[in-house]
Amino acid sequence: MFGSRLAIHLAVIFLSWRALTGTDGLPRVLILGDRVYQQPANELKKELKGKIEVHYPRHEPGFVWNSSSALEVLDQYLGDEKWDLIYFNCGLGDLVHRAPKIKSFRVMPRPAGGIRATDPRDYERNLDLLVRKLKSMGSKILWASTSPIRHSSTDVFVPGSEIEYNSIASGVMRKHEVPVVDMYSYVRSLINMDKPASHGADPFHFDRKPIHSPVREAIVKSLRLNLQP
């Protein structure tokens, strides 16, 4: 009798542990951000295979990830499962210029009348709401500063506008005691800020240089993992 109760008790503990840590007991990490994070997520899935489960939800075609749209889809992206760590950023989709006075999101160059997607006050308010929601999940969270914006032929961004929004985000994260991964400084050290990006794709391409290293280091440090063989 005692043996059967012990077996049931151990089974419950095991199932709870599996639910908490993920498949095969691996920590589960969710990366939330725009397509800047597609390359880091793909690289981390390969590098950390068998050590960490890395998840990066792909956005639907035409969907623009920013602090407003993130609030709309957050529950869907979080799902019902437990995340050990959530790494997130919103910024470029807030700074891009869009067509005014229409419901659908359509990017529009500034000379053609495009307006910034999110004003500073709304950006601060949205980030505050996002952080409160993520912290309520009981997961560890990391905020990533927005990468640098330099000149591009598309003219849908203002070079340097990310500096103000990074300052706003820094204040929100400081208030909520959320660690910040300084992707701005890291990426700036990789690229030539005086050289326009090729094909007008800036700020989503980084002169073909990978940017996943600080993401990896921050995740491993936050989860206190020893990845030595």
Can you describe what's shown?
The longest helix is centred in the first third of the chain and has 20 residues, at 2-21. It is globular, with a radius of gyration of 20 Å. Mean pLDDT is 87; it is low at 1-22. It has one domain (27-223): 3-Layer(aba) Sandwich (Rossmann fold). α3 packs parallel to α5. The protein has helices at residues 2-21, 38-47, 67-78, 92-95, 120-135, 161-176, 183-190, 213-223; strands at residues 28-32, 53-55, 85-88, 97-98, 115-116, 140-144, 180-181. With 229 residues, the chain is of the alpha/beta class. The strands form two sheets. It has a five-stranded parallel beta sheet with strand order 2-1-3-6-7, with helices on both faces. A two-stranded antiparallel sheet has the order 4-5. 42% of the residues lie in helices and 10% in strands.
Q: State the name of the first-level CATH class.
A: Alpha Beta
| Number of β-strand runs | 7
Q: What is the fold named in CATH at topology level?
A: Rossmann fold
Which value, in Å, is the CA radius of gyration?
Answer: 20 Å
Strand order of the largest sheet: 2-1-3-6-7
